[in-house]
């Protein structure tokens, strides 16, 4: 059964093997550590949540809680739930946004570290080929501090939420689903104050000794796309990468 109200042109993207990140058996469970001081509350316009930040500075792991608070957009929340329903009805009856989100976090962390290390050849099969070429050009112009800020380790990831969902058909009848994921993560990279206007800065005291370590909360948008045309491998490809004022 077709979905005429969703029909439209959509640029085709080469498939990848990103599917290995989007399965629940590859999810890394958060570690349990003793909680120390609370970091200041950060308002970033997302649903309230608490994630722990773990550091091995000084030879021992210390756990810091970062509270991320805000109010979700009810229109976007309701619209994305409709699209999840359509995906299950017309494309993948086993689709679950919770499992997809966990897999996307693994992919985001892995790809961001490859970008930070300028390992563009390793992005093949994970990121669309035309996007890799653009990323290589942009990263070549970034200073070392900005390249470092692209990297997001799993323990630095504070919050993840779907940003938008799209279902499209092109003129040849091919079917595509795209899901935009938004990530908030911490970085200790030294960045000029004027270079990242609008980002959040706070300090985390590690072990209660010495100077507090300054952390910056950055955001990133990664879009995942999959073609659901019959006979096409069931793979998700990253077709869009944006890091707040670093890679736009």
Give, in order, the helices and strands: EEEEHHHHEEEEE
- Major pleated sheet: 5 strands, antiparallel
- Report low-confidence residues grouped into runs of 5 or more: 1-20, 23-54
Counting helices, strands and paired strands, the structural category is alpha+beta
- Percent helix: 10-25%
Task: Write up this protein.
The structure is a single chain. With 248 residues, the chain is an alpha+beta fold. It is 22% helix and 30% strand. It contains four helices and nine strands, in the order E-E-E-E-H-H-H-H-E-E-E-E-E. The chain has helices spanning 74-90, 97-116, 129-139, 144-150, and strands at 35-38, 42-43, 49-55, 62-69, 157-169, 175-187, 200-204, 213-227, 236-243. Strands 5, 6, 7, 8 and 9 form a five-stranded antiparallel sheet that branches. Strands 1, 2, 3 and 4 form a four-stranded mixed sheet that branches. A hairpin with an 8-residue loop joins strand 8 and strand 9 (236-243). Helix 2 packs antiparallel against helix 4 (144-150).
Architecture blueprint of SSEs:
Blueprint: E1 35-38, E2 42-43, E3 49-55, E4 62-69, H1 74-90, H2 97-116, H3 129-139, H4 144-150, E5 157-169, E6 175-187, E7 200-204, E8 213-227, E9 236-243
Parallel strand pairs: 1-4, 2-4
Antiparallel strand pairs: 3-4, 5-6, 6-8, 7-8, 8-9
Helix pairs in contact: 2-4
Short description:
The protein is of the alpha+beta class.
List keywords for this structure.
248 residues; 4-stranded mixed β-sheet; 22% helix
């Amino acid at each position: 059964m077709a979905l005429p109200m969703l029909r439209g042109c959509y640029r085709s993207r080469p498939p990848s093997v990103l599917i290995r990140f989007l399965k629940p058996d590859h999810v890394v469970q958060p570690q349990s550590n003793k909680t120390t001081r609370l970091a200041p509350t950060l308002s970033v316009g997302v649903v309230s949540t608490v994630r722990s930040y773990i550091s091995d500075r000084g030879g021992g792991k210390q756990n810091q809680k970062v509270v991320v608070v805000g109010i979700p957009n009810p229109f976007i929340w309701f619209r994305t739930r409709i699209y999840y329903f359509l995906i299950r009805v017309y494309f993948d009856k086993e689709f679950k946004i919770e499992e997809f989100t966990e897999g996307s976090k693994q992919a985001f962390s892995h790809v961001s570290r490859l970008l930070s290390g300028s390992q563009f050849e390793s992005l093949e099969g994970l990121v669309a080929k035309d996007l890799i070429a653009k990323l290589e050009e942009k990263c070549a112009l970034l200073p070392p501090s900005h390249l470092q800020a692209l990297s997001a380790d799993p323990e630095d990831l504070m919050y993840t939420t779907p940003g938008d969902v799209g279902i499209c058909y092109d003129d040849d009848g091919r079917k595509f689903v795209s899901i935009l994921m938004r990530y908030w993560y911490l970085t200790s990279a030294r960045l000029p104050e004027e270079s990242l206007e609008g980002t959040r800065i706070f300090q985390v005291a590690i072990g209660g000794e010495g100077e507090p370590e300054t952390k910056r909360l950055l955001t990133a948008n990664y879009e995942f796309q999959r073609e659901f045309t019959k006979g096409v491998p069931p793979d998700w490809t990253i077709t869009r990468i944006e890091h707040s004022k670093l890679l736009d």
